[in-house]
Amino acid sequence: MGFDDSVLICDEVDAVLNKILQDNGLKVTYEPKITPEQILEKISTFHIVIVRSRTTITKEMIEKADNCKIIARVGVGLDNVDQSAAKSKNIRVINAAEGAMNAVAELVLGFMLSLARQTTRGDRAIRNGQWLKNELKGTELRGKYLGIIGLGNIGKRLARLARGLNMNIIGYDVVPIDEEFAKEVGLMKADLDTLLQSSDYVSIHVPLLDSTYHLINAQKISTMKKTAKIINTSRGGVIDEEALYEAISSGNLGGAALDVFEKEPAIGNKLAELDNVILTPHIGAQTKEAQSLAANIIGEKIIQILRGVI
Q: 2, 14, 282, 301: which sits with the fewest CB atoms below 10 Å from its CB?
């Protein structure tokens, strides 16, 4: 059975999503560079709106979306969609939380390895004509304590990868942690304060909510080991970047790796001044495999919703 619903895709997505939708009869308008003003003008004519992270679907847009049934994000979080406004208009909001699971976890693992061996600093030094062999004495990940804040899909995948390197896993979540999974990776459950005090590496995997804004602040950082390192691939606002800068620059924290920032693009962010900090431009889900998987997931979810299956 085909559908005649119209779809507006506002960001660049893998071509497989277009194929799934068109194969099922949907009329797809692909505008990956569409502006907020243009969305406001056009949104009333579409039944389905699809975004990634570039586009924010605001309350004002949703108020004009009189024919909209579904707003879909080809990614993990939904903080760029006004979910309350969507709910008030009975618009279904979906994402592809499973799509980026492995890609983000592998990026975190890469960050940990790089922080442990200071590879980015060594690379920069050679490019600047310096040979820092004697200065760059690293550490191994084996036997170190990894604290994972948030044990959803990504947190669990990271735990499994880290366990393969013989790291010790400490976990904290506001929801109960699956017992079978905890046994599988030898996870030690802890409250947030204990996790921060005990970990050599801390990786954050939580959504940005009122309750998680600046979850990692000056007070929390002050309880951590001076050699500890923080990794954030979730949302920028979860960490107080000013407090993070002060702790690292004063030698009270060992380093950090950030893929997300309070303000993006993070051009001019002063954390870039610090040698023991790695910064990447929100690339956690930016792999061919993850983008293809997320597009597949969203395409199939949309078709299932239209069929009344889910």
A: 2
